[in-house]
Every structure is written in structure tokens, then in C-alpha cells.
């Protein structure tokens, strides 16, 4: 081979190497840009996943609040209905209580019958979680009692109940009927 051909071959090879070097940075730039695009895509997907998790947690919290609210509403409706039904039965309970107090002169069978009916009514109220309240000697509470008279007495302290004219009834914390009482003043 001649010297000229050798020089041409060397120049061609040098030119090819230079071109390859120039192309390599482009390839690495392309690789980097693909890497950047992939990282951006990953970040975007992570943000979407985070948003979806947040939405899911909020939905779960809303459902839990809804469940609690409807459960409390059902209980309130049940308590209101029970209160209304018991309120209608209270005059019967008062009559039975009065009859039991005034059966001293009545025949034994009659007294036992009245006591049996009174105990059945008391059992029904217990099943419905209805409680009678107010006894002589209790402290007067205007939230529970309705004072219809006031007397002076040495046997009782001030604001103490001296007589119960009508028992009070409550269902849980809800007052069905206030007790009618006489208070020492």
C-alpha cells in the first residue's frame, strides 16, 4: 500500500471515531432523557396513587360517620317511640299504684291480682329500660322534679322532697314524665 492510501485510511478511521464520539453523547442524552421521562412518569403515578389513597381514606371516614350518624338516629327514633308508648301507659301505672296503696281492706285475692298486674307492668318497663324515679328524702332537682307545693318541716332539710304525688319516669337520660313532688323549704 502506498503512503497516500495509508494516510487516507487513517483519516477515514479518525473521522469515523470522531463521528462515533459525537454520536455517543447524543445516545447518552437520549438515554438520560428516557430516564428522566421514566422518573417523571413514576412521580406522576406516585402522585395519582397518593391522591387515590387520600380519596379512599376520606370516603371510608365519610362512610364511618354516616354509619354512626344513622345508628344514633335509629336509636333516637326507637327511644322516642318507646317514650310515646310508655307515656300513654303511665296513667294506667298510676292507677295500679294507687290501687295497690288502697287495698288494705280488700279481699286477699283482689290484692294479689292488683299486685300481679303491677309487677307485670314493672317487668315490662324494665324490659323497655324505663326507670321510675323519685323517693321521699331525695334532693330536689328542677330538671327531674316538678314541685307543686312547699312546706316547712323540721324532719327534712331544705330542698328535700317530703312527698311524692306522682312518680317520674325516664328512658336512659330522656325524661318521659317529671315527678310531681312536695318540697321542704
Explain what you see.
The chain has 185 residues and is of the alpha+beta class. It has a domain at 131-185: Roll (Nucleotide Exchange Factor Grpe, Chain A, domain 2), CATH 2.30.22.10. It has helices spanning 3-101, 108-127, and strands at residues 130-133, 145-151, 161-166, 168-171, 174-177, 179-184. Strand 4 (168-171) and strand 5 (174-177) form a beta hairpin. Helix 1 runs antiparallel to helix 2 (108-127). The termini are far apart.
Quickly describe the structure.
This protein has 185 residues and is α+β, with helices and mostly antiparallel strands.
Structural class: alpha+beta
Strand content: 15-25%
Helix count, per DSSP? Answer: 2
Based on Cα principal axes, name the global outline: rod-shaped
Distance between the termini: 137 Å
User: What is the number of E strands?
Assistant: 6
What fold name goes in the CATH topology slot of the domain at 131-185?
Nucleotide Exchange Factor Grpe, Chain A, domain 2
- What is the residue-mean pLDDT, rounded to a whole number? 86
Radius of gyration over all CA atoms, rounded = 45 Å
Provide the spatial order of strands within the biggest beta sheet: 1-4-5
Q: How does the major sheet shape up?
A: 3 strands, antiparallel
The CATH architecture category of the domain at 131-185 equals: Roll
The helix fraction, in percent, is 55-70%
Query: Order of helices and strands, N to C?
Result: HHEEEEEE
Q: Which homologous superfamily in CATH is the superfamily of the domain at 131-185?
A: Head domain of nucleotide exchange factor GrpE
Amino acid at each position: 500500500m502506498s503512503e497516500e492510501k495509508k494516510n487516507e485510511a487513517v483519516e477515514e478511521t479518525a473521522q469515523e471515531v470522531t463521528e462515533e464520539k459525537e454520536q455517543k453523547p447524543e445516545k447518552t442524552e437520549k438515554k438520560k432523557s428516557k430516564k428522566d421521562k421514566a422518573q417523571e412518569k413514576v412521580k406522576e403515578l406516585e402522585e395519582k396513587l397518593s391522591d387515590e389513597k387520600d380519596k379512599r381514606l376520606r370516603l371510608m371516614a365519610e362512610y364511618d360517620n354516616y354509619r354512626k350518624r344513622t345508628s344514633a338516629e335509629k336509636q333516637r327514633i326507637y327511644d322516642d317511640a318507646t317514650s310515646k308508648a310508655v307515656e300513654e301507659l303511665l296513667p294506667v301505672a298510676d292507677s295500679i299504684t294507687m290501687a295497690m296503696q288502697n287495698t288494705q281492706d280488700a279481699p286477699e285475692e283482689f290484692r294479689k291480682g292488683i299486685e300481679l298486674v303491677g309487677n307485670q307492668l314493672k317487668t315490662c318497663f324494665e324490659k323497655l329500660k324505663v326507670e321510675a324515679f323519685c323517693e321521699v328524702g331525695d334532693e330536689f332537682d328542677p330538671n327531674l322534679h316538678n314541685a307543686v307545693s312547699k312546706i316547712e318541716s323540721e324532719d327534712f332539710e331544705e330542698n328535700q322532697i317530703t312527698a311524692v304525688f306522682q312518680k317520674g319516669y325516664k328512658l336512659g337520660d330522656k325524661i318521659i314524665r317529671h315527678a310531681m313532688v312536695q318540697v321542704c323549704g
